Amino acid sequence: MTTDSPCPIVLFDGVCNLCNTSVRFILAYNQEKNLRFSPLQSAKAKELLKDLNLGNRPMDSLIFIENNQAYIKSEAAFRISKHLSYPWKVIYHFRHFPKRFCDWFYNLIAQNRYSWFGKKQFCMMPKEEWKDRFI
After folding, report:
1. Residue 17, pLDDT score
2. Which of these, 41, 114, 106, 53, lies nearest to 75 by C-alpha position?
3. Fewer CB atoms inside 10 Å of the end CB: C or N, the chain?
Protein backbone atom coordinates (compact mmCIF):
# COMPACT_ATOMS: atom_id res chain seq x y z
CA MET A 1 0.00 0.00 0.00
CA THR A 2 1.30 3.44 -0.80
CA THR A 3 0.65 6.70 0.97
CA ASP A 4 -0.23 8.55 -2.23
CA SER A 5 -3.81 7.33 -2.08
CA PRO A 6 -6.26 9.60 -3.92
CA CYS A 7 -8.31 9.59 -0.72
CA PRO A 8 -7.14 10.98 2.61
CA ILE A 9 -6.69 8.32 5.30
CA VAL A 10 -7.58 8.45 9.00
CA LEU A 11 -5.60 6.12 11.27
CA PHE A 12 -7.21 5.68 14.68
CA ASP A 13 -6.91 3.59 17.84
CA GLY A 14 -9.28 0.73 17.02
CA VAL A 15 -9.87 -0.32 20.64
CA CYS A 16 -10.55 3.16 22.06
CA ASN A 17 -14.25 3.90 22.59
CA LEU A 18 -13.73 7.65 22.04
CA CYS A 19 -11.81 6.99 18.81
CA ASN A 20 -14.47 4.60 17.50
CA THR A 21 -17.23 7.08 18.30
CA SER A 22 -15.22 9.79 16.53
CA VAL A 23 -14.82 7.60 13.44
CA ARG A 24 -18.58 6.96 13.33
CA PHE A 25 -19.13 10.73 13.62
CA ILE A 26 -16.69 11.41 10.77
CA LEU A 27 -18.34 8.75 8.61
CA ALA A 28 -21.73 10.36 9.18
CA TYR A 29 -20.59 13.90 8.35
CA ASN A 30 -18.10 13.21 5.54
CA GLN A 31 -20.71 13.74 2.83
CA GLU A 32 -18.20 13.38 -0.02
CA LYS A 33 -17.29 9.93 1.32
CA ASN A 34 -13.68 10.61 0.36
CA LEU A 35 -12.05 9.65 3.67
CA ARG A 36 -10.70 6.16 4.27
CA PHE A 37 -10.06 4.60 7.67
CA SER A 38 -7.80 2.03 9.28
CA PRO A 39 -7.17 1.11 12.91
CA LEU A 40 -3.59 1.78 14.01
CA GLN A 41 -3.42 -1.87 15.08
CA SER A 42 -3.87 -3.14 11.50
CA ALA A 43 -1.09 -4.36 9.21
CA LYS A 44 -2.11 -1.77 6.61
CA ALA A 45 -1.76 1.10 9.09
CA LYS A 46 1.64 -0.20 10.18
CA GLU A 47 2.73 -0.34 6.55
CA LEU A 48 1.53 3.22 5.93
CA LEU A 49 3.34 4.46 9.03
CA LYS A 50 6.51 2.70 7.95
CA ASP A 51 6.27 4.34 4.50
CA LEU A 52 6.04 7.73 6.25
CA ASN A 53 8.93 6.95 8.63
CA LEU A 54 6.51 6.89 11.57
CA GLY A 55 6.84 3.16 12.19
CA ASN A 56 7.88 3.47 15.84
CA ARG A 57 5.11 5.93 16.67
CA PRO A 58 3.11 5.07 19.81
CA MET A 59 -0.62 4.53 19.29
CA ASP A 60 -1.57 7.60 21.31
CA SER A 61 -2.58 9.87 18.45
CA LEU A 62 -4.95 10.15 15.59
CA ILE A 63 -2.99 10.26 12.33
CA PHE A 64 -4.32 11.82 9.16
CA ILE A 65 -2.61 11.20 5.82
CA GLU A 66 -3.34 13.50 2.92
CA ASN A 67 -1.24 14.07 -0.22
CA ASN A 68 1.52 11.84 1.14
CA GLN A 69 1.82 14.01 4.26
CA ALA A 70 1.06 12.80 7.81
CA TYR A 71 -0.57 15.03 10.42
CA ILE A 72 -0.87 14.10 14.08
CA LYS A 73 -2.72 15.24 17.20
CA SER A 74 -4.72 18.47 16.92
CA GLU A 75 -3.50 19.19 13.38
CA ALA A 76 -4.93 15.83 12.28
CA ALA A 77 -8.29 16.66 13.85
CA PHE A 78 -8.37 20.11 12.24
CA ARG A 79 -7.51 18.74 8.79
CA ILE A 80 -10.14 16.01 9.06
CA SER A 81 -12.75 18.66 9.88
CA LYS A 82 -12.16 20.26 6.44
CA HIS A 83 -13.77 17.14 4.97
CA LEU A 84 -16.93 17.34 7.09
CA SER A 85 -20.19 19.02 6.26
CA TYR A 86 -21.18 22.37 7.71
CA PRO A 87 -21.19 23.32 10.61
CA TRP A 88 -18.43 20.85 11.55
CA LYS A 89 -15.97 22.08 8.93
CA VAL A 90 -15.75 25.33 10.92
CA ILE A 91 -13.56 23.43 13.40
CA TYR A 92 -10.75 23.76 10.85
CA HIS A 93 -10.43 27.46 11.73
CA PHE A 94 -9.46 26.58 15.31
CA ARG A 95 -6.05 25.64 13.91
CA HIS A 96 -5.19 29.33 14.32
CA PHE A 97 -5.06 28.85 18.08
CA PRO A 98 -1.52 28.25 19.32
CA LYS A 99 -0.41 24.72 18.40
CA ARG A 100 1.11 24.25 21.83
CA PHE A 101 -2.28 24.86 23.47
CA CYS A 102 -4.19 22.69 20.99
CA ASP A 103 -1.76 19.79 21.38
CA TRP A 104 -1.77 20.16 25.18
CA PHE A 105 -5.57 19.82 25.15
CA TYR A 106 -5.35 16.93 22.67
CA ASN A 107 -2.74 15.16 24.85
CA LEU A 108 -4.89 15.60 27.97
CA ILE A 109 -7.76 13.75 26.30
CA ALA A 110 -5.49 11.16 24.63
CA GLN A 111 -3.76 10.27 27.90
CA ASN A 112 -7.08 9.76 29.68
CA ARG A 113 -9.20 8.32 26.86
CA TYR A 114 -9.31 4.76 28.19
CA SER A 115 -10.17 5.74 31.76
CA TRP A 116 -12.75 8.35 30.70
CA PHE A 117 -14.37 6.56 27.75
CA GLY A 118 -13.34 2.91 28.05
CA LYS A 119 -11.60 0.42 25.84
CA LYS A 120 -12.74 -2.54 23.73
CA GLN A 121 -10.96 -5.88 23.54
CA PHE A 122 -11.08 -5.87 19.72
CA CYS A 123 -11.11 -3.27 16.96
CA MET A 124 -14.55 -2.17 15.80
CA MET A 125 -16.17 -3.88 12.86
CA PRO A 126 -17.62 -1.31 10.44
CA LYS A 127 -21.27 -1.42 9.42
CA GLU A 128 -21.91 -3.02 6.06
CA GLU A 129 -22.51 0.37 4.36
CA TRP A 130 -19.13 1.62 5.62
CA LYS A 131 -16.95 -1.38 4.75
CA ASP A 132 -15.74 0.10 1.47
CA ARG A 133 -14.37 3.09 3.40
CA PHE A 134 -12.03 0.96 5.50
CA ILE A 135 -8.66 -0.17 4.18
Report:
1. 92
2. 106
3. N
Residue 31 one-letter amino acid: Q
With bands split at pLDDT 50, 70 and 90, how would you rate the model's confidence at 5? low
* Of the candidates 38, 40, 11, 41, the residue with the CA atom closest to the CA atom of residue 131: 38
Residues of the chain with pLDDT > 70, as a percent, come to: 94
Q: Which residue type does 135 have?
A: I
Distance, CA of 62 to CA of 64 (rounded, Å): 7
Residue 38's H or E segment, with its range, is: strand 36-39
Q: Is the pLDDT of residue 118 over 70?
A: yes
- Asked if residue 60 lies in contact with residue 106, where contact means CB atoms within 8 angstroms, the answer is no
Percent of the chain with pLDDT over 90: 73
Q: How far apart are CA 128 and CA 135, in angstroms?
A: 14
**What predicted TM-score, i.e. pTM, was given to this entire model?**
0.89
